[in-house]
Structures are given as C-alpha cells and as structure tokens.
Amino acid sequence: MKYYTAYPRDNQIIGLAPMDGVTDYPARQIQAKIAKPALMYTEFINVEGLTKKPQAQENRLKFDQEQQPLIVQLWGNNPEYFYQAAKIVAPLGFNGIDINAGCPNPRVLKRGAGGSLIGKNDLIQEIVNGCKNAIKETKGNLPLSIKTRIIGEKEENCRWAEALADLDIDLVCLHGRDLEQRLSGPVDWERVNEGAQIIKGSGKLVLGNGGIKNRTQALEKCKQYNLDGVLIGQAAIGNPWVFSQNDTPTKKELFKTIADHARKVEEFYGPRGFKSFYKHAVCYCRNFSGAKELRIKLLQTKNWPQVENLLNSVALT
User: Fold this and answer.
1) Known catalytic residue: 103?
2) What per-residue confidence (pLDDT) applies to 9?
C-alpha cells in the first residue's frame, strides 16, 4: 500500500517523528497501545552499517503489525550505500522509506550526512535515484520521502524547497528550525509555510515539524499553514498520550505505563540493554508531586522488577 498517496487529503497526518535512541521497538509498542499516531518512524538507520553488517541492525529493523503504518528512516551520504540499504529494507514490510536530510547532530554532520545534505541538490538527486531503483528492483511500490529542515534565509529556503519539489518523492517533512538551532529555539513556521507551498505545488504531501506540544496545536498548525500533517517529536518522549485529545493521564495510568515500558525494554534488549529505559523514565517523571524524587529513584533501578516494586511502593504512600 502506498500509504502517503493513499491517505485522504482532507485528513491531517499527525505522526511520531523519528528520534535516534528514542523511537525504538519498545517505545513504538507503548505508543501504539496508548494513543496510536497516523504513522510512526523508526530510529535512524545508517546505510553503510546496514549494507556491511545487516545483522547488527536487526533490532532497529524489527516491528510488528500494531506499529504500522511505519516508515523506516535511512541516513548517510553515499548514494550506493543508500541503494544497497533500500534493497534490504524494501521487502521487509515497512510502509515507506525516508531519507534523513535534517539531523543536526555534530557527529552526523561531520560525516557529511543528515543536515549536511541540505542544499546539495545533485547528491540528494543521486540518493533519491538509488532508493527509487532499489524499490523498483524489489518489485515494491513503497513511497519515498525526505525529512529535512528550513534554511533561515528566505531566498535560500525557497531554492531548497524548489529542489525538493523537483525530486521524484512522495512526501517532504520540514523542520522549522535551521541547522544552527539544532533542537531548541523558536520554530519559524513562516519559513515552513514558504517551503511547503512550493513543494505542494508539485503534488507532494508536506508535513511540518518542530516544537509541537500536543494534538490540538498540531491540528492548528496544519490549518494555519495548509499542511498535510505534522510530526510530534520531543513532546512525545515520556508522554505517549500527546496524540490523544486527553493528554493528561491519571497517576495510576502513568505508573502502569512506566512499568510496562520498563518490562518491554528488558524483554527486547535483555538486562544489559536496560539503560535505554532511562531516557524515557526521566521524561515520564514531570508535572506531578514527587516527580523529581521518583525520577532519581528510577535512574537507580537495574531491571523491570525493581521498577515495578518502586512504583508500587510510591503508589502506597
């Protein structure tokens, strides 16, 4: 199913943005159970690593039906590796392939990937061609998309949007902060709108991204800037309720979800991988009495039973 192009044009796509080390298999399980978004993305998957050592990327490629529609996001800067990686992921059952052309992480930028691809039109074209060829060769009909960023200067932003509009892809997601801002600071929705209208003129879908705190705000941005949807990122960490109309869980619901998340992390990664739960634990513990104390104690736990015992003891006080 070509999810992007089949999605009703009169509905907004409110989805979970790709976040490395965050939107992994356990987190997507929790998200799908609590408040399922219109679509979700995997963590970032490096095309060179996937091509050379595909077995090392198995955890990042695992998903189940409940997590769909699910888009696999690839990052790198070598068109041949993108081609090889797309050949690997295309037959696996994902609902689309996304090219990361916006990550602001300095380590990614140093490798000429992520946000370093912004404005490199010829290279982006080669990468898109490689992915399209891979999809065609695997007899698939997967949509191809790019997640990228605005450029702060209007003329350059418009040129970048025009280059994206010319690509043979189905969807573009525009983050409203430039590379220098990384993940903080004001989101320039006017620049997003500026680029979006150019890209939409080519018949592609356009999503916005950046600083969205809840579903209501996401829908407002869609309407205000004529967007086909919005991706929610940081606000979803430790708050899977962000995609529902009622985004304030009871303390009982919160504690149950924390324990469930800890259990799923341990089951998926084993005891040695339990530390990946901590980044979520920190974000679950906010905006309620005793949150700071619970956060500190959760970061001292070593496994799921310890988390459950801690939450039970706190609930009884």
Assistant:
1) yes
2) 53
